[in-house]
Amino acid sequence: MLKTFRRGGIHPPENKLTAGCKIERIPLPENVIIPVTQHIGAPATVTVSKGDKVLTGQLLAKSGGFVSANIHSSVSGTVSKIDNFTDISGYKQTCIFIDVNGDDWMSDIDRSPELITEINHSPEEIIQKCQEVGIVGLGGATFPTHVKLKIPTGKKCNLLIINGVECEPYLTADHRLMLEKGEEIITGTRIIMKALGVNKAIIGIENNKPDAITHLEKLLNGSNDIAVQALKVKYPQGGEKQLIKAVTGREVPSGGLPIDVGIVVHNAGTAFAVYEAIQKNKPLFERVITVTGKSLSKPGNYLVRIGTPVSKLIEAAGGLPDDTGKIIFGGPMMGKAIPNTQIPVVKGTSGIVVFPLSESERINYGPCIRCSKCVSVCPMGLEPYLLMALSEKNLFEKAANEKITDCIECGSCSYICPAHRPLLDYIRLGKSTVMRMNREKSMK
Questions:
Q1: For residue 435, is it left (φ>0), alpha (ψ between -120 and 50) or beta?
Q2: In which band, very low, low, confident or very high, does the pLDDT at 265 lie, cut at 50, 70 and 90?
Q3: DSSP characters for 65-104?
Q4: Is the pLDDT of residue 11 over 90?
Q5: How many CB atoms lie within 10 A of CB 81?
Q6: Rg of the chain over CA atoms, in angstroms?
Q7: Rounded to whole angstroms, how far apart are CA atoms 354 and 239?
Q8: What is the pLDDT of residues 237-256, one digit of tens each?
Q9: Which residues pair with 288 in a beta bridge?
Q10: In sequence order, which ranges of 160-223 are alpha helices (DSSP H)?
Q11: Rounded distance between C-alpha atoms, residue 101 and residue 123, angstroms
Q12: How high is the pLDDT of residue 68?
């Protein structure tokens, strides 16, 4: 019997249109826009100036604290300016603009395709290297990887889970990585295990990727340190807490972290990035991104340099269809619509989904009919209808008491609501407000 988490969840249409599309490298753009904040935590501090010549892989901005990440150049060329630019958040932030001139890499990066499985770095060296090359969680959360590798005092990790679920509809980047870079992901997993000091890892993969499950099991060949766990298809199984519950039965407490139950979770793409960092000395300046949509002529999975404008990805996928109504950064459940195609891809960009106008228009919403469907599908056991009402009326203290910060923003409530109420929109507003209030209280 396939495992899954028990509380809540939905089954939206999968629309994995690009599951059979091999990873392709798109041509370099004429220029890139590289934000200095591509991670959870403090912005990085710019270390280059206008007019500087840079190489691919060169440090552009140094981490601004422990919870922060270094930023590296994804191209070689000239820094044309350092200026503010509106990113996916809708706010302006500091970005480094580079005019591309060739593709000359830093000399200490190993560009050979040779697979290196022997791990010669110590746990401390692994953590330090992950910090130096700017690795963050590539599943979308973008939490600095070196922070997750340092187990807090008083805590103990006894299991690593690699998240190969990719439950968001349309997205297939991790699926293709597992098929095409499986050996590297397995080695990256063992590197992370060494850093954490654990001897057991489980790779969780939903059963709609049977080829990936079979491929990794074949590569592991009965290894006793890493196992592949097939999972029943259910959204949002890619959430850390849901994946932990599905794989182990352990439940992360409200307000807690996976390490509170002895587990650390890393994305499959992150494991690949760790492999490249440790075995190839390669900074995180490119990643695989799914570019998809029902009207695109050439949807696919593309290896893309960080800072590349979205317009170049859509161009590689056949151009913007005439019936386009919305372009989503990420997947349709948790992604955000972008206002234009000049916004650059960043470390956390897992997909670009182009929706036709017929699927993009919001339906006028009605009053809550007290059907409780949003409650039944919430994987965190919350009451979304109540959290929306409290946020709508600015009752944020009460929202905090109702554990609004436990919301993982999966969108299951909005998806299932028969009255089409914008539950997640208001919950996001309330959650961000409560988190800001908590930060202000802690600073007093």
A1: alpha
A2: very high
A3: SSS---EE-SS-EEEEEEEEEE-TTSSEEEEEEEEE-S-P
A4: yes
A5: 13
A6: 21
A7: 24
A8: 999 999 999 999 999 999 89
A9: 303
A10: 173-180, 182-196, 210-220
A11: 37
A12: 93
The one-letter code for the residue type at 98 is: I
Q: At a CB cut-off of 8 Å and minimum separation 6, what does 341 contact?
A: 309, 310, 311, 314, 320, 327
Q: Token pair of 248, please?
A: 């182990």
List strand residue ranges (DSSP E) for 258-365, in order.
Answer: 263-267, 286-292, 300-305, 324-329, 336-337, 351-356
H or E, element range at 374: helix 373-377
| Residues 421, 109: Cα–Cα separation, whole Å | 50
Residue linked to tokens 């206002």: 339
Instruction: List beta partners, residue 304.
Output: 287
C-alpha distances (whole Å) from 422 to each of 33, 34, 99, 258, 331 are 33, 32, 41, 29, 17
- In angstroms, the CA 273 to CA 184 distance is 9
The class that CATH gives domain 123-280 is alpha beta
How is the chain split into domains, by residue range?
A: 123-280, 373-443
Residue-wise over 289-324: b if at least 16 C-beta within 10 A, else e? bbbbbbbbeebbbbebbbbbbbbbbbbbbbebbeeb
| Integer angstrom CA distances of residue 214 from 76, 176, 319 | 39, 13, 35
Computed over every residue of the chain, the mean pLDDT equals 96
Phi-psi region of 413 (alpha: psi -120 to 50; beta: other; left: phi over 0): alpha
Separation CA 362–CA 358 (nearest Å): 10
Q: Report the half-sphere exposure of 315 (CA within 13 A, side-chain side).
A: 13
Report the residue count for the chain.
444
Sign of CA dihedral 407, 412, 416, 421: positive
Q: What would the mean pLDDT of 420-444 be, rounded to a whole number?
A: 93
pLDDT digits (tens, 9 = 90+) for 55-112: 999 999 999 888 999 999 999 999 999 999 988 878 899 999 999 998 999 999 999 9
Distances (CA, A) of 131 to 74, 126, 128, 149, 342: 17, 9, 5, 10, 29
Give me the half-sphere count of Cα atoms (radius 13 Å) on the Cβ side of residue 316.
23
Has residue 13 got a pLDDT over 80?
yes
How much helix, strand and coil, in percent to the nearest 5, is found in the chain? 30, 20, 50
- What's the pTM? 0.96
Tokens of 164: 């190969």
